[in-house]
Structure formats: C-alpha cells, structure tokens
Amino acid sequence: MRRLLNIELQKLLLNRTSKILIFVSFILPFFIILLSSLKINVFGLFTLELGELGVFNFPVIWHLTTFFASQFKFFFAIVVVSMIGNEYSNKTIKQNLIDGLSKKEFILSKFYAIVFISLISTALIFFLTLSIGLYYSSYTEASIVFRDVNFLVAYLVKLVAFFSLCLFFGMLIKRSAFALAFLFILYILEWIFYGILAWSFNNKTAESIQGFFPLRAMYNLINQPFQRITMAKFPDKTNLVYDYGVHTGEILIVLCWTAIFIFSSYSLLKNRDL
C-alpha cells in the first residue's frame, strides 16, 4: 500500500497545477476562522458578531464546520479527474503498466491517494473545529465537546465517496472537463428522477428513494445546520424540528456507492484496450 501511495503522491506533487489545487483545498476550510470573527454592522444600530451568537458552541460546531468544509471538495475533485486525464494524455498509464504495475494496482494507487488526502482534510477540520470551539464555546466538558464528533466520520466518508465518483468519471470519459461536466449532469438527472417519482407517487416516497441516489446519499450524510441553530435559539418552535443526525444506514449506502465506483473504475480499465 505504501509503495502505491508513494507512486501516486509523487505524480501529484510533481504536477504544479495539482499542487496548487491541493493547497487551495486544504486552505479554504480555514476561512471558517474568518467567518467566526466576522462582525456585521446592522444599519449602524448594532454590531452582529457570529462568534458571540453561540453558533460556534459545542457540539453544534462539529456539524457547522464539516458542512461548510464539504462545500470546498470540488477543488480536489478537479485534481482527481485531472490525474486520470493526465495519465491518458501523457501516456503514463501505459508506461506504468509496462513497468510492471498491474491494472488493479493502478486503480488502488488512485484510491489510496484519495483516502490519504481525505484523512488529512478530516484531521485539519478536527483541529480547526476544536480550536474555534474551545475559544468561543460556553461548554468545555469533554462529554459535550466530543458529542457530535461523528460528523467527522460522515465528512471523511463523504469525501472518499465523492472523489471515488470523480475517479470513475475520469476513467469513463478520460478528459477532465467532460468528467466534471458529468457531475452536473448526474446532479440534474437525480432531480429529474425525483420529479418523476414525486409525480408518480408522493413527495415522501420520492425523498425516500432519492436517498439512495449517489449525490443525494452523500449530501444526506451532513444535512444543513442552519435549521438546527435556529432550533437552539427558538426551542418552542416545534415546526423547526428535523433529523440532522448522522445515521449508520446512510453511511452504509455511501460506502456501497464508493465500492461500486472503485470496482467500476477497475472494470473499465481492465476491459479497455490501452
């Protein structure tokens, strides 16, 4: 595993564009710090400071930071599809196979790189969240501080699954721009199917089935936190209650899709004439 990971990391770090995109992917989540210190002057009447409103209290901050950080995953998605596109355009994929790397090892090297960078990103979010939370939060008891740390697990699974999908599209299309376009096409198709299901059955049934679609399943791992924050401010508003938790079933669905994407990428490469 270490050998395959080293091979892939060398390819990424020797490519200037990949290095810049990876750097940006790791830096962008730190803008949450700027968000925490943001002060908004409301018509000169008073100053609204997000850090003082309790939105960065434990345990809700784990939900907040992982949700925002997951929005920046598109930058590394460009790296994933680019590393496949470059393999084909530079003929390095054929050279790797000639040099003794099997097709299975080739796909595994990509997957190991995806998992490795996802782990680094998750570790950064852990330390970032812990730092902001300890600074702003009114609660410092360990039982409260680490109560919703399972959002980090959901964040890691979400990154690995999304990048595995990008790997599959990269292998399928072999061109970076078209592979990224297929992400948007898949997103549109999922909503078209949802509309058909809602029209054929009802919204509740359509939402249940939509939860098995790949992109929607990934989104469901970390639902939006804004309604949860509002619930905390207005506990008497029962109409705001919703299920924001991380569920094992949803994680299993996304893990199944991850396995499908990796196996499909291998099948494409195995059956393709290079």
Automatic annotation (TrEMBL):
GO terms for molecular function: ABC-type transporter activity. The keyword Disulfide bond does not apply. Coiled coil: none annotated. Pfam families: ABC2_membrane_2 (PF12679). The chain crosses the membrane at residues 20-40, 60-84, 111-137, 149-170, 177-201, 251-269. GO terms for cellular component: plasma membrane. Keywords: Membrane, Transmembrane, Transmembrane helix. PANTHER family: INTEGRAL MEMBRANE PROTEIN-RELATED, MEMBRANE PROTEIN. This is ABC transporter permease. It comes from Pseudotamlana carrageenivorans.
